[in-house]
Amino acid sequence: MRTLKWEPMFDPEEETSTAIAWISFPALPPNFFVKEVVFSLAASVGKPLQVDLATRNQTRPSCARVKVEVNLLRDFPKRINVGLRRQSGEISEKWIKIKYDYMPKYCKNCKIQGHNKHECYVIHPELYPKDKMEDDENEKRGVQKEMELANPRTEEHKENKETEEFKD
Ligand SMILES: [Zn+2]
Question: How far is the CA of 113 from the centre of ligand 1 (A)?
Answer without folding.
Answer: 9
